[in-house]
């Protein structure tokens, strides 16, 4: 880990052969989901979020040039993952770019195996308790619960009871109250999209972004107190 990133405290790691998500993800509990916009529109928001101690991000997988532009500047100060529909053919590019983790959608067993062989921890998407249990039983490193807002704010409690022991990463429309509930239920991390990033890539109002970062991180601190 780079010296520019605050050192997290000790964290339990899996002992069942699953790959481990980066320390910044497991310690901060927050993954900022970056929108599908030009890299030039992402730079200032990412800088502000890093300054406010949001250090884990995920980019749409489809645009490799954008990913490389972001990684070139921020690799030493943050961990960058990818999300979206991806194929086995994408994996070598992720390895070359040293992508930290993957949140694949509609992943095939072949893709998940390729990511594992490449050493990239992944959380395939699932929604129902049956789907979540199946993904975990198939060896997923975590399970991306998406879209998380399809259920109530208490859905994390339900999944924890019905899929015990599964490392959950909810994504999609998670607001502050639902964030608190997911963290209380033991989620590995929570993906925040518009709730955190908002319209900053379009309007450039970074002061509001700073306030959202502080509010979200206070929720995390309160949940861990």
TrEMBL record:
InterPro entries: Aldlse_KDPG_KHG (IPR000887), Aldolase_TIM (IPR013785). Homotrimer. Keywords: Carbohydrate metabolism, Lyase. This is Bifunctional 4-hydroxy-2-oxoglutarate aldolase/2-dehydro-3-deoxy-phosphogluconate aldolase. It comes from the Bacteria. Belongs to the KHG/KDPG aldolase family. SUPFAM superfamilies: Aldolase. CDD domains: KDPG_aldolase. Pathway: Carbohydrate acid metabolism.
């Amino acid at each position: 880990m780079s010296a520019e990133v605050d050192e997290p405290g000790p964290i339990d790691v899996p002992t069942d052969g699953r790959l481990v998500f980066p320390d910044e993800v497991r310690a901060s509990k927050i993954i900022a989901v970056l929108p599908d916009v030009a890299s030039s529109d992402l730079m200032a928001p990412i800088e502000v979020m890093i300054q406010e101690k949001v250090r884990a991000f995920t980019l749409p997988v489809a645009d490799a040039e954008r990913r490389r532009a972001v990684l070139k500047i921020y690799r030493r100060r943050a961990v960058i993952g990818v999300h979206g529909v991806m194929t086995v053919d994408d994996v070598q590019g992720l390895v070359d770019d040293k992508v930290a983790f993957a949140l694949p959608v509609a992943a095939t067993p072949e893709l998940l195996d390729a990511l594992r062989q490449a050493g990239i921890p992944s959380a395939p998407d699932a929604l129902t308790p049956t789907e979540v249990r199946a993904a975990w039983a198939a060896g997923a490193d975590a399970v991306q619960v998406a879209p998380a807002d399809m259920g109530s704010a208490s859905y994390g409690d339900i999944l924890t009871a019905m899929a015990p022991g599964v490392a959950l990463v909810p994504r999609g429309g998670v607001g502050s109250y639902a964030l608190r509930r997911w963290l209380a239920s033991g989620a590995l991390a929570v993906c925040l999209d518009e709730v955190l990033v908002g319209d900053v890539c379009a309007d450039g109002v970074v002061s509001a972004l700073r306030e959202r970062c502080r509010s979200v991180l206070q929720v995390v601190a309160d949940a861990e107190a």
